[in-house]
Design brief:
With 145 residues, the chain is mainly β. The protein is built from one helix and ten strands.
Length: 145
């Protein structure tokens, strides 16, 4: 299980964490930490990106974040030559400007929900745009005569 620090403080951008496991995902490897500030893909929102910084200052690029089936979070790495070892301590740091754009778009979508009197059936969120799908009884069309 990975402690999800972003659930307590959405503005936290980094933390010190211990490597729990390293997993081969085929083309990529993923690191599970004991705690993280990285939001994992879910609910129509993309996972965070950022870096895992080693004690020697070298960085491992995190290109995606996904939940795994054990309650942990996989920090998916770009191709790396030296993977961390279980037990190693790293500094996990998110790409804050990207996260902040996602947060602002998320808020906009909540405001849209307040304006449309219909249930939401789906949606997605990105840095530049978001989408919500509503279950409307009839299509809303403006006719110009």
């Amino acid at each position: 299980m990975t402690a999800r620090l972003y659930e307590e403080d959405a503005y936290l951008t980094r933390c010190r964490a211990r490597v729990v496991s390293v997993t081969d995902l085929g083309d990529f490897s993923a690191v599970q930490l004991d705690q993280t500030v990285f939001y994992a893909l879910g609910g129509g929102q993309p996972g965070d990106r950022g870096v895992l910084r080693r004690s020697d200052g070298s960085e491992l690029a995190v290109v995606d974040c996904r939940k795994n089936d054990t309650g942990g979070i996989h920090h998916v790495l770009a191709e790396q030559s030296m993977l961390p070892e279980p037990g190693e301590y790293l500094e996990a740091e998110i790409d804050w400007p990207r996260r902040h754009r996602h947060m602002r778009m998320h808020t906009c979508l909540h405001l849209l929900c307040a304006l449309v009197d219909a249930p939401v059936t789906g949606g997605s969120l990105g840095e530049e745009r978001g989408r919500l799908d509503f279950d409307l009884p009839e299509p809303s069309v403006n006719k110009i005569e």
